[in-house]
Write a structure and sequence with these properties.
- The chain is α+β, with helices and mostly antiparallel strands.
- The protein is built from ten helices and twelve strands.
- The protein has two domains: 164 residues, Ribosomal Protein S5, domain 2 (2-Layer Sandwich); 114 residues, Alpha-Beta Plaits, CATH 3.30.70.
- It is 33% helix and 29% strand.
- The strands form two sheets. Strands 1, 2, 3, 4, 5, 6, 8 and 12 form an eight-stranded mixed sheet that branches. A four-stranded antiparallel sheet has the order 9-10-7-11.
- The two termini are 12 Å apart.
- The protein binds cytidine-5'-monophosphate.
- The site of cytidine-5'-monophosphate has 12 residues, from β2 and α5.
Length: 292
């Protein structure tokens, strides 16, 4: 029996993030188009006999205790399946930056849920895996499904959309950042909240119009995060002929959509001077890739 599995967990960006309301429990409801992009964490899961989950990660600032979302996801999986934890060793290699709004922790959680479904031979459908994921975090159901998806509710109501057409996506994360709860709190205190109709973005996806997608990028949380470098990065991206540029999630990473890979790469060269994380990537159709 295979007792080890390696899984790649993709980052996400939000092509549109429109905050539309607030639930009594404090969570915000959204209309958001999520897109998986080709930046991956890699996780190796090994069944042991210690009856404990042990997570190892060399990246500074990543918790390795029960607060890590991958560990929380394993706990949620064992609870749902009513199976006893035989013991798990998780090796996590991070490439997705933290405090970026790129869903790194959520994607690691999604990877854990997909991996346990294989290792424990539970054969749950994606719908069930998403229910387990929702308990762990609002973005986890999307990360389980991946691709191009309209997410509503707090992120748990998923409607797959036509795949984003091929293009180059430059991503830059400045030093400054705000946490997700802090960003939503600042959003609540905004006097004027911008809104955006998502139908134009959906129409552009339907006809693979990269320029239209770039022109319709929007994020309600950008004004709330209020990070100076976000504005500067956007201006630089637009000066290199990006079709559009926008902050992703609760920030602080910014992405720009380019027709030309050369323009995206030239732009990144300038952004590298003050951004600790920069990359040129592309849209991908899968969130979690399981190596059998
Ligand atoms: O679910 P997740 O752990 O990603 O959310 C972290 C925090 O971000 C929540 O506790 C909440 O304060 C805020 N949040 C929100 N509305 C969402 C997602 C997150 O208010 N849709």
């Amino acid at each position: 029996m295979a007792d080890t599995i390696t899984v790649k967990a993709a980052a996400k960006i939000n092509l549109i993030l429109d905050v539309v309301g607030k639930r009594p429990d404090g969570y915000h409801t959204l209309k958001s188009v999520f897109q998986s992009v080709g930046i991956y964490d890699e996780l190796t899961f090994k069944i042991t006999d210690t009856k404990k989950t042990v997570l190892r990660c060399d990246t500074e600032g990543i918790p390795t205790d029960g607060t890590n979302l991958a560990v929380k996801a394993c706990d949620a999986f064992f609870r749902y399946s009513k199976k006893e934890n035989p013991g798990l060793d998780i090796k996590l290699e991070k490439s997705i930056p933290s405090l970026a709004g790129m869903g790194g922790g959520s994607s690691d959680a999604a990877a854990a849920i997909k991996a346990l479904n294989v290792l424990l031979k539970t054969e749950y459908s994606d719908d069930i895996l998403c229910d387990i994921g929702e308990e762990v975090g609002a973005d986890v159901p999307f990360c389980i499904v991946g691709g191009t998806v309209l997410c509503e509710g707090i992120g748990e109501i998923l409607t797959p959309l036509p795949h984003m057409p091929e293009c180059s996506i430059a991503v830059a994360k400045p030093k400054a950042a705000v946490s997700t709860p802090e960003c939503f709190k600042k959003f609540d205190s905004l006097e004027f909240k911008e809104v955006k109709d998502i139908s134009d973005m959906i129409a552009c996806l339907a006809v693979s119009d990269v320029e239209g997608i770039g022109n319709n990028l929007f994020n309600s949380l950008e004004k709330a995060a209020d990070i100076k470098e976000v504005k500067r990065i956007k201006e630089i991206m637009l000066s290199y002929e990006a079709y559009g540029a926008c902050m992703t999630g609760s920030g602080s990473a910014v992405f720009g959509i380019f027709e030309s890979k050369r323009d995206a790469k030239d732009c990144i060269k300038e952004l590298e001077e003050f951004c600790p994380f920069t990359v040129v990537t592309k849209p991908v159709e899968k969130g979690i890739i399981v190596d059998d």
